[in-house]
Amino acid sequence: MSVLRSSGGLPRSNAPSSQQIAEQQQQFAYISQQLAQQVLSSLHEAVTDVCFKQCIAPKRFRSTLTSEDRRCVATCTDRFNEAYQLYISDYQKKEQQRAGSSLHDAMKLHQ
Question: Would you say 15 and 109 are in contact if contact means Cβ atoms under 8 Å apart?
């Protein structure tokens, strides 16, 4: 099977066009956003579950939260928020590096 053009006999380039690259980047951005939303949703569920079990459940249900309960929940959620901020920061750095290397690779293909 030949990959030669009908005129000139030169090999075709398999490199994606700039439009294809842009479309792929948009698709990747969309998927990344969906993944980030799923992570955030999972984190929210984890915070609710863990903090409830840690701060409220052991004391059985009461009609109101004590100041100790509120402090426990606030501390618990603060730790999760800190962890999430670290995750987001690391994720964004990796995405920037990946996007930079993808753009660099695409530019090399067009040279």
Answer: yes
